[in-house]
Amino acid sequence: MNIKRSAQNPVIRIEDVAPSRPDFRVLGVFNAGVAQFRDEIILLLRIAEAPLSDRADEVLVPRLNEAGTDVLVERYDKTDPGYDFSDSRFIARDGQTVMLTSLSHLRVARSKDGIHFDVEPQPALFPEHALEAWGIEDPRVTQIGDIYYITYSSASARGVGAGLAETRDFRTFKRRGLMLAPENKDVMIFPDKINGKYYALHRPVPKSFGSPEMWIAESPDLDHWGNHRFLMGLSEQGWDSARMGGGAVPIRTERGWLALYHGADSKHRYCMGAVLLDLDNPAKVIARSRVPVLEPEAAYEVNGFFGKVVFSCGALLLDQTVRMYYGAADEVMAVADIPLEDIYNTLL
Amino acid sequence: MNIKRSAQNPVIRIEDVAPSRPDFRVLGVFNAGVAQFRDEIILLLRIAEAPLSDRADEVLVPRLNEAGTDVLVERYDKTDPGYDFSDSRFIARDGQTVMLTSLSHLRVARSKDGIHFDVEPQPALFPEHALEAWGIEDPRVTQIGDIYYITYSSASARGVGAGLAETRDFRTFKRRGLMLAPENKDVMIFPDKINGKYYALHRPVPKSFGSPEMWIAESPDLDHWGNHRFLMGLSEQGWDSARMGGGAVPIRTERGWLALYHGADSKHRYCMGAVLLDLDNPAKVIARSRVPVLEPEAAYEVNGFFGKVVFSCGALLLDQTVRMYYGAADEVMAVADIPLEDIYNTLL
């Protein structure tokens, strides 16, 4: 593999981002959707925040109030043995998540060269109703004509579903409702209609039985989705044996739709791999990575808010090279250039 | 409550149903969808079957093969301490369901009086592809014009999703694909378009957080669904505090859409309740039962394959009385007539 991580990595760090309010701090800037807009490369960043606190014996967690008008702060006692604080991402009790430790919103960053970004001082999309009360996360951006469609995880006490929004200019955004019900994440819309229909990859998480695996759905209008089909599942062992889901918006190549996806093993080590899907029938898997395309190896990938994670939500095809933008360790944004040929070589 | 359970209850019992093959036995005939077709009342029954076995130390479980062409039988050793056989409905290991103990298909029963039914000797819909490999369950039938739409649970190792089929005559059936991805059950389509859109109730089961609660979705064409909204959730305590989901297809009344739904407490005791939804905006709850409409009390409701269950998938409005068809104890079909006024009296 001839991966070139940018010498500027991480290209966006916590200190590059102003919190949305003075009593909050930024825990991470990661898992950004990517778009080419006029002469700019735009990242739609996920910004995770939590209230400032100077006490080691408490965790302050933010969530939206029921009316969607304000952010409430709840205090959890770290010395309470009834709670489990071992996963930095959430608070659990009796094995069940009771609250996330941060509230995420989406923020625009702009660049001329795709490496040096200016992060806007204000949120682009902030949680605004009950089904977003625990945050909006992991956006993917798909350009179709002049409109950029944004899918994102919509988290609340009701579960995590897939929200849809749109923009023409990355200044004003319009929500279009929940396109997939809980539990579903990692939704990305294909950039072209295929045989007259829109397609999207998605990743349901069933409770009673079944695993977090990749599915595909169709739509006549982007708002309503159906004909859900199973696309691909966990491997028996190895890097994508515990959970998986779509990553970057699929890229059209000569050999098929190239979809970079994430997989994790039972130790929560997240890598990126690739799958090729048939151009005319994206429900058909042509080939899939047997070894990861990118593994967490750099210091900023191994250490962070949640370590050993590389997680891409968007990539660009520059001639024969894929420029992959990815969240590293749930804390920073990074970029890597990977020759298309090297990605193909991971495929069986 | 002035509930009149039919004196003929159970109106369909195991011995009334021929197994689909001679080496299988019927474990239950229950949770039937209901339709009025010409001069007949039709029940679309769920028939659960398992292979015949004369050994007490084994459990034989059926599932469809990968190609969808044949039913395989797998043998589980009841003396193996690694498996948990305590729930009659499934086999578990390490707290996770590994296999259902029966394979369900759908079967037509016909009646002139709505009480005495003739059960057809052959399945109407039998599992036929990988996403139905563990069975098709709990149908709901909605008539729109001349077409009867059937939603059903489509179970497989990939989880339980919502299948859609249609028929004009209850003799030939056409599948229309998976309308909602796993994990989702208890889907019922409203019998009229409302403001130009189709609506359905559904019951996702999120894994990471969230509960089995009722949602509503919209569709332009019945195949593709979106604008998912949370409808109503578990009560703090009581009969519908652990899980809930839609039951009978909603009935139009003067006061609103009357949706009979099921709820269970932490001891898996399933009751039926009711909710009234706004006629013009069915996402708006007008009122909901604080006490159950029907509780498992009769012997055939308390004792059976899975006891203490009343579970309706369909009901008819006969003047001012609701005739509710329901599965009892996951084993037999029963009928109860309930005055509309008594149902209204349960609503807060």
From TrEMBL, chains A, B:
Give yes or no: UniProt keyword Acetylation: no
Q: Which is a Pfam family this sequence falls into?
A: Glyco_hydro_130
Keywords of this entry = Glycosyltransferase, Hydrolase, Transferase
Which SUPFAM superfamilies does its entry note?
Arabinanase/levansucrase/invertase (SSF75005)
* Gene3D superfamilies in alphabetical order: Glycosyl hydrolase domain, family 43
Molecular function GO labels = glycosyltransferase activity; hydrolase activity
Going by the entry's taxonomy, the superkingdom of the source organism is recorded as Bacteria
CDD domains named in the record? GH130_Lin0857-like (cd18612)
Q: Which family does it belong to?
A: Belongs to the glycosyl hydrolase 130 family.
The cross-references to PANTHER family, in alphabetical order and at most eight, read: GLYCOSIDASE
User: What protein does this entry describe?
Assistant: Glycoside hydrolase family 130 protein
